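Sample 1 of the test manifest.
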Amino acid sequence: MITRMSSLFLRTLREDPVDAEVPSHRLLVRAGYVRRVAPGGYSWLPLGLRVLRNIETVVREEMDAIGGQEIQFPALLPREPYEATGRWEAYGPNLFRLKDRKGADYLLGPTHEELFALTVKGEYSSYKDYPVILYQIQTKYRDEARPRAGILRGREFVMKDSYSFDLDDDGLARSYRRHRDAYVRIFDRLGLDYVVVAATSGAMGGSASEEFLAVAGTGEDTYVRSTESGFAANVEAVVTPAPPEQPIEGKPEAQVHHTPNTPTIETLVDFLNGAGLGRTFTAADTLKNVLVKVREPDEKDWRLLAVGVPGDREVDMKRLEAALEPAEVALLEEADFTANPFLVKGYIGPGALAANGVRYLVDPRIVRGTAWVTGADKADHHVVDLVCGRDFTPDGTIEAAEVREGDASPDGRGTLVAARGIEIGHIFQLGRKYTDAFEVDALGPDSKPIRITMGSYGIGVSRLVAAIAEQHHDELGLVWPRAVAPADVHLVVAGKDDTVTEGGERLATQLSERGVQVLLDDRKASPGVKFADAELVGVPTIVVVGRGLTKGVVEVKDRLSGERTEIAVDEAVDHLASLTGR
Amino acid sequence: MITRMSSLFLRTLREDPVDAEVPSHRLLVRAGYVRRVAPGGYSWLPLGLRVLRNIETVVREEMDAIGGQEIQFPALLPREPYEATGRWEAYGPNLFRLKDRKGADYLLGPTHEELFALTVKGEYSSYKDYPVILYQIQTKYRDEARPRAGILRGREFVMKDSYSFDLDDDGLARSYRRHRDAYVRIFDRLGLDYVVVAATSGAMGGSASEEFLAVAGTGEDTYVRSTESGFAANVEAVVTPAPPEQPIEGKPEAQVHHTPNTPTIETLVDFLNGAGLGRTFTAADTLKNVLVKVREPDEKDWRLLAVGVPGDREVDMKRLEAALEPAEVALLEEADFTANPFLVKGYIGPGALAANGVRYLVDPRIVRGTAWVTGADKADHHVVDLVCGRDFTPDGTIEAAEVREGDASPDGRGTLVAARGIEIGHIFQLGRKYTDAFEVDALGPDSKPIRITMGSYGIGVSRLVAAIAEQHHDELGLVWPRAVAPADVHLVVAGKDDTVTEGGERLATQLSERGVQVLLDDRKASPGVKFADAELVGVPTIVVVGRGLTKGVVEVKDRLSGERTEIAVDEAVDHLASLTGR
């Protein structure tokens, strides 16, 4: 196939788009791959659509290879199934909702768990029918609060979503593993540098869950990795290693101190170190009790929750929310303090919490036998040497303290460093949330119903175009991996005399006959303009047909390395066909 | 490729779906190609999606062959461009409208003229850039009042829409012709029996326009065709041949008659024939004047319009509306008659119309010199021998009278008969409506702007699945043309002993290695169930591997003709590969 730039619907831009925050956005617009139509809405121009389709093909091949069967649902869906699972409400303003001419409620599908579950229920009935993996590659909609970075976070985007349906947890684990392996193959084939991180599940409910993140400083997702092992995890999923318990015997008794003017941990530590207590305190010796309120799903009332963390750490609200999911969490308002006068702001201690029945969860570092400086439930007073398991007993532990670079890796090897990535895939042992909602059962061999268990697996197909571009570009433009490039060879005709133009045409034809996809720059523009566009567009191999032709050679340039080689015209077709794997 | 029915997500149904009105709907559901999700919303199961994709491929190949360049727009679009062209309003309740989280207005795209025009304006500037043809194959949305017949008229559907952009009318005519030729190739390749009919343009505004209709008694579109020539047209587009003018000299004078109790044309004719006027009258001798009101776009007020048709014909409101487009047409209300007392209901004649400045358009049969019986603008009175061009002068002609079987064909050859079809394509010289709205100009060689002219060309891709099924089925099930079939060969393993199952597996593998797509029925079901499913599913070639294997033969059945042939196992692969063109 020959694509002629003289007629291609492509105009490259010299200037960066004003709204471009990240390199992929800047370059995909400048190189004429996408155009903005609305906030979070982009059109795909010819070269962009080719890259998107190439990615779709890789995804489809690997999904088919694990026995996935492709189907396609509407994007415009009735409210009822989403009402039944609570997602009509739970999605909040992220869901595009609309009414039809008869006033019936509809939504634009963000993901299709409901439809897949209902469809399997409709077709299958016997245990012999299972397992099954179904998938679609489809346009999805989410009314993002802040669509950003071009197609990296759009409101209309292409996603591959697949779902596994198994008879039991072992089957689910096998389907999950097959997806994990398929995802590894997909992202490897796409030339991505990525990590697989342990993840929490987001708003979907369920258990085992991993995210695939393309490593990118511009990514929205923060994760941590070990300096020494392969450990990587979402910050929300980091498990704090608990220190060993300590003997209670021999610990000094708890003592209340008058600690005026100590509104912060810092001032408190300074005060303690100046109080002549015979030892040095750090913020890590203090226990900070943060009060929030929590509302369980389907409950009307909020309940108080106290979260105790070492004073050298903040509570990370995202980690706290993830730990309490699916419950809602909110900070206390002034009215809450008024209604609970035992909460002495700045001086809350375990004593008043226990006395008033407030649930108290602590950081895993607060183990039996450790001694803490904490609030004495009285203004300007703290208690020193309050020992866990002797003077107070928390109701349990919670992962709510911030994770910091330098923290020990949960696998015991190395310390954690922070990194950023772009979420490109998510695999998730969803369990029975949706099959319970719709009573998706198989009739077992003993004629008893078996409740089906589901896995849910997503890949952000259109986002991958941007994720790949984030990792594969330089200061001159895009540098596509061969598997997704919009052409195999960018053939620049550098000269206007007949020898050169005819030589270019001939080579393009011969390459095309060998199955090599050629982007032929047959425009009347100057060689300089053509070279610059070739660098910008980012086809991995650039062939220049120019003055060398009189010597019988053409130049082959590797877009990534910049390396140039002169090749005899006679050998060019074989050389390029082999280079491009055609 | 081998698709195993033992694991295929397919359950055929023995019963017709209760809501199925037409064979395609009934069979596509029974054979497990589609499932209903919502009114006018269907999911594509694996076999259905394959047929849809096969059709897309044919459409894409032929669009690429005429130089079309594929792009893709969002389906979720901002209001503004559609506001600018008036379509936000004009589409009425057929448009799905919604608001985003910020309250901004959006719509789900029914067609994308606005976006294509704006995109070309954004990329192109010089006359040298033109012409260009762009297309997309995309999901579209229309809130149909009565979604029906499964995927034949859905509210979410797949359409190929393309647009040509030319510098002048000759260029547009060339682009139109290329599309027309491409459409003929597409529908021929898809094995469709279709007609190309002259069409009016619908709500789009513009000039030359043809529709491609798949011939089907279940179709929603009525058209007429000549009994003797290839003429075919939408009823709205039928042009009435005008009879020759007649000399006015020698015509009797017009005479007003008292015609009591003649509220209908029939009673009037009876009265006249009993009045001793010395000749016989028929309804075709009377002139019926129908009053409507018309409002031009961008005007606030309605204006009266009188339409005169021969009394033996009704006014066809669809033809009248098409003739007056883009103006609105409405019937008169009681208040209109009260406000215009010169309109004597049942007795309206040309006299009062002319005297009161009412615009008067007549059927083309009412030519100069013809004499008519018509209303005398006075209750219970008619005038006889009112001669056109002598006693009244219409303001022009209009195509508003009903078209009837037996009418002369406009091309002068044969008479018209009515037929029904399914609209599968529409090509349309759109002109400058959208380029005017957005000022899409090219800078000409003389540095003066040239307003671009557009063509608009649609194919109902998902509807084609149903249209093909309407034409290709029998009482046992679907009978797909080879170009769109979900597999090349349906291989039925008819028997459970190892020789048969291994023979079936071996043949399937050999065929797959030759590039033949095999749907392998390796289920444990009985041969009878498998045969019935094979007929229902409709793959064009059915191969039965059964007892014949002991004699070294398999049976090859042609699904369309029912013809069965025994083929030596050794020759089966070559035979089937050649039969299926692989």
